[in-house]
Structure formats: structure tokens, C-alpha cells
Amino acid sequence: MSTNDKFALEIIEPSERKSSNWDMFATWVAANANNGTWFIGGVIAACGFGGAIGHLTWSSVIAYLTLAGIGYIGYKVGATTMGAARASFGIRGSWVPSVMNMVMYIGWTAVNTFIAATSVSILLNELLGWPVWGEPGGEKGIVVGIIVMSVLHLLSVSTGANSVRIIERVGVVLVFVFAIWETIAVFQQVSFSEIVSWTPPTDQAMASGVAVDKLAAFNLGWVTCAADFTRFAKKPAGSHVIPFVGAFIGVFWFALVGLVATISIAITSGTYDPNNSDPSTIASKLGLGAVALIVVILTSMTANAVNLMAAGSSLTNIATKLRLTPALWIVTLAACLVTFIPLIIGSFLDSFTLFLDYIGCALGPVTAIMLTDFFLRNHADYSRRDLTAEGGRFWYASGINWIALGCWLLGVVLYVALGKVPFLTATVGATFPNMIIIAAVYWALMRAVHGEPAKD
């Protein structure tokens, strides 16, 4: 068996790149213009309107600067994010972040699917009188909703990257229309001044650092799939500037909608409940009707097209003989099974919070290591042939860069430790300080052990 057969890696050459700047913009707006973003907006409402907006803005800017960096790697190298991770983690070592990445994007698919399934259950309640989720017997509607959404997701990835691109182009328009509709509906219920002056109950208030860590985890979730899409960009700006702008617009606008809608419901009902940031619940309580619920279902498809593509790409970096389309089918079916977890745990919010903790803990260090290796150690230049060459520059020790894996493990432990530091909990959180520390440690250890990378 040849080396290329053992360690296959699809490189998208410049002549094969078909995604315009509009495609890139639509992809990254649609990535954040989804159910999960509404939900995170409601979660950070526990900081009050002003605190939530401030944390949302600065933490998203930092996170999406790292997305732009990974996006540029995809454009420059032509590889997926996990394919490019072979340079820092080693050809075989990259399987570790690939597994984490795959698990994460299957999880994100499940999050969005569960929220959309809630919309399906509400529709079934209106059409057939079935109990909605949260009422006795409400599990039936959710189960049907999960199955319906999983079938739709299988159809949306049926032809691989081409079907994903079409879903994004069409879906982003529908998402924009619905977001405008819901924003108008919210401000018809309460005034902007009431929303700004609202304060969360003392026993439900969220510390600044906790909010930043949840937002950082949410935003960094997109970073490790950036190159999967930017490697198709026709122009350089489509790999870094456009993804940054698109992702930021998507997260700010849709988290804002979730934020003000949750506060609006808290004001009118007298009770603050982060679960009310679920767009299905919002649409129902604001009286937006069945059409709005159908659009929520469609937003799940646009966001999950990105999630499933990222999960499938990660799987192909591990199972190198597996083609992308069957890989997409596999991760879609896996996501369907994972979506049932909140039914077992009994709380979607608890499942969501635990999931965000996993992301911040595991993927922040991966991002820091990759950016440090590409931009600082290798001066923004990787040799494509070394990404697949046994015994080459990125082979390290039997295909594994133990320094990178050691730094990643250190980052996981350090994240947990820093999360218990009162000063960080009250201010900037643990995620970004942890990434800075891991970047510095990785750079210092690699320089001490391997010296400067050899020039090609």
C-alpha cells in the first residue's frame, strides 16, 4: 500500500474552488443564524441587557479573529481544519482533535435538532392536539420531531458539499426574514427602555467570566471547521475577512433576538427562565403561528448543514478511505441518536450547558496550538506533501507530535483550574487566558525540542 493510500488527504486546488464571497458570507451568517444562537442569547440574559451585549461583543470579536486565522490556513493549504491539524499534532496525532471535533459537531447538530423538534411538537399540538414537550405525554411529539428533522438532514447532505452550498444560499434568506419578523414582534410586546432596565433575579444572575466562557465556547465551536469551507473560497478575503464579518453579524443579531425575547417574556410573565430563549417557545408565546415554527425548522437545516459537513470532514481525516458523502450519512445518523440525550437527562438547558463546558475545555487549546504552529512557527507556510508523507516533516514520532498532545492535555486541566479562580470568574473567564498560556507553552517547547522549522 502506498503512503498516499494510507494517509489520504483531499487538497482543493485553486482551480477547483467555486465558493464566491457571497457563498462564504451566507455560510457563516447561516452558521450562527440558528436556534442555538437564540438560546445562548437567552442564557446570557442572566447578566442583564448591558452586560450581555458587552460580553457578546468583545468575546465574539476575539473568537472570530481565531476563526479568520484558521480560515486563512484552509485557503493557503487547501485542506480541511483537521487535515491541517496534521502539521501541528502529527499525521496520526491529528486523529485526537478529529475525534473531538466530530463529537462536537454531532453535538451541535443534536442541539439544533432538539430545538427544531420542539417546533415540530408544537405544530403537532396545534394540528392533532398532542401534548407539547414539558407536559405529560409530550415525549411523543419530540420523538416524532427528532425523526422528521433527521430525515430532512439526511436529504440536505445527500450530495455532499454541493447540497450543503444550496441549503445555505436558500436558507439564509428565510432566516433573515424570520429574524426581522421576530424582532418586530418582540418590540411590540415591550419597549426597548423596559428591556434595557430589566435586571435578572439575584439568585439567577450570572458572573461575567461565566458568561464569557459560555460565549467563547459557543463561538469557538465554529473555529475548528473554518478551513473545511474556506478551502473552497475563490478569493483570499473569502477565507478570513468575509467569514469574520458573516459569523459576527450572525451571532450578534441572533443572540440579540434571543436576549431581548427572553427578557420580554420575563417582563410580561414575571418569571425569568433561560429555557424561554428557545425560538420555538418564543414563536409560540409571541403568537407568531405555524409559519414561524416551520421557519425555525428550516433554520435548523441551514445551521446543521455546516455542522454535519464539519463532522463528516473530521471523520474522513480518521477513516481516510471513507468518501465525504457516506461520512455525512454516518454522522447524521449518529446525531439523531445523540438528540435523544435531553429526553434521558430531563433538561435541555442542563445538557446544553454541559456541552458548552466540553467545547471550551477541549477545543480552545486545539485552536491555540494550530494558530501558533502555522503563523509563528511555520511563518504561514505548510508543505502540502508533508501533510501526507510518512517519515516527513509532520511525522514526528510514529506520526504523533507528543508536545502538541501534551499541551492539549495541559490546556484541558488548566481550563478547569482557571475556571475556579474567583478573579477570572468575575471578569474575563478561563477560556482566553488558557489559550494564551497554551500557545506560549507550545511555542517554547517546540522551539526547545525541535528548533526552527526547516525551510522547504
UniProtKB/TrEMBL annotation:
One cellular component (GO) term of this entry: plasma membrane
Gene3D superfamilies: Hydantoin permease
A GO term for molecular function: cytosine transmembrane transporter activity
This protein's UniProt keywords: Membrane, Transmembrane, Transmembrane helix, Transport
InterPro entries documented for this protein: CodB, Pur-cyt_permease, Pur-cyt_permease_Fcy2/21/22
Residue intervals passing through the bilayer: 38-67, 102-122, 142-158, 170-190, 210-229, 241-267, 287-306, 327-349, 355-376, 396-417, 423-445
A Pfam match: Transp_cyt_pur
Topology with respect to the bilayer: Multi-pass membrane protein
Compartments where found: Membrane
Family: Belongs to the purine-cytosine permease (2.A.39) family.
Protein name: Cytosine permease
Organism: Bifidobacterium avesanii
